[in-house]
Amino acid sequence: MTSQQLSVKVAMNSWRLVAERAGKTFSNFTEDELLKEVAPGKNRVIYVWGHLTAIHDAMLSILGLGPRLHPELDAIFVSNPDLTATQLPSARELKKYWDEVNTKLLSEFARLSADEWFERHHAMSEEDYAKDPTRNRLAVLLSRTNHMSYHLGQVILARNSGA
Amino acid sequence: MTSQQLSVKVAMNSWRLVAERAGKTFSNFTEDELLKEVAPGKNRVIYVWGHLTAIHDAMLSILGLGPRLHPELDAIFVSNPDLTATQLPSARELKKYWDEVNTKLLSEFARLSADEWFERHHAMSEEDYAKDPTRNRLAVLLSRTNHMSYHLGQVILARNSGA
User: Fold this and answer.
1) pLDDT tens-digit profile of B120-130?
2) Distance between CA atoms of B133 and B128, rounded to whole angstroms?
3) CB contact under 8 A, A10 and B81
């Protein structure tokens, strides 16, 4: 394995580890717990779940991996804060979306060659990329892994036990 | 820049971004806010600050970058849960430790060649590394960046405004 392939593998392992942990955590919440705020006056768990699903769905287009599966989630979970949407998807629907989006991402990630991870991401121009080659797909992956960890740390607080 | 150097740079950028944000967040808490729990019945902000400082300090030995600066923090912030230590360091002391440890890490990171990031970390044997070369310094860096993001997401909840 070249060190280029190795670095991609390390980054993918890191993503997969956090995504599996997040998936399990959300799936294990009861319907009541999903409606709990992560802390007084803050987002509800279900909102964070939808938010992460929408942000992961958007990675498909940012990374140039094909059309998004659920762009309709943005209006509820990204452009607007919690408690503004009149109706949220049910827990069952959210679990379906989460699984669809994250399964699709993993299968698309597996198709990319190590070289392709070092190509620019699609939210930036060729010109900007030439100036800063660190703004590549790998950087997006690490940034979204951190984003998921950040929110995972929050939703854990709404569980009835543990830290 | 080779893609090996590029991957190290992307991972270091990701670490630096989260570490700077965490450092600013902790420094901006008032003494009173530092004693707040991140959510009812959960860790206090000051405990999380000490915990991250201790875990980052331990990276020096795990990554083979020299002796730890503050191993004494482990007993208070790692081996024991919050509210068990009779006395915690003051906010001023914690800020000093945080700055020392994170400055030292950045300067040691800068000394490592790209190749060295792909060498095994010191918490594992040569034999295990031969079986799984993804268990290298880079993997430790990504894992600790996620760990920091996880706790950063929690302490943000104790601020009086924002999400």
Assistant:
1) 888 888 888 88
2) 8
3) no
- Over range A2-6, report the average pLDDT: 90
Say how far apart CA B4 and CA B113 lie, in whole Å.
Answer: 10
- Token code pair at residue B74: 């482990």
CB-based contact A1 B149, cutoff 8 Å: no
How far apart (Å, rounded) are the C-alpha atoms in residues B58 and B35?
A: 24
State yes or no: pLDDT of B161 exceeds 60.
no
The radius of gyration of chain B from alpha carbons, rounded to an integer in Å, stands at 17
A121 in Cβ contact with A138 (< 8 Å): no
Whether residues B133 and A1 touch (CB distance < 8 A) is answered with yes
Asked if B153 lies within 8 A of A149 by C-beta distance, the reply is: yes
Which pTM does this prediction carry? 0.96
* Positive or negative torsion for Cα A100, A103, A107, A110: positive
Chain B CB contacts of A145 below 8 Å: 142, 146
pLDDT, one tens digit per residue, over B17-70 is 999 999 999 999 999 999 999 999 999 999 999 999 999 999 999 999 999 999
Could you give the residue ranges of the DSSP H alpha helices within chain B?
3-28, 31-34, 45-62, 73-77, 91-111, 114-117, 126-131, 137-155
Distance from CA of B146 to the nearest CA of A (A): 5
Q: Which residues of B102-111 are buried (b: 16+ CB within 10 A; e: fewer)?
A: bebbeeebee
Helices B3-28 and B137-155 pack at an angle, to 10 degrees, of: 30
For residue B77, give how far its alpha carbon lies from the nearest alpha carbon of chain A (Å): 14
Residue B52's Cα: distance from chain center in Å?
5
DSSP letter at A141? Answer: H
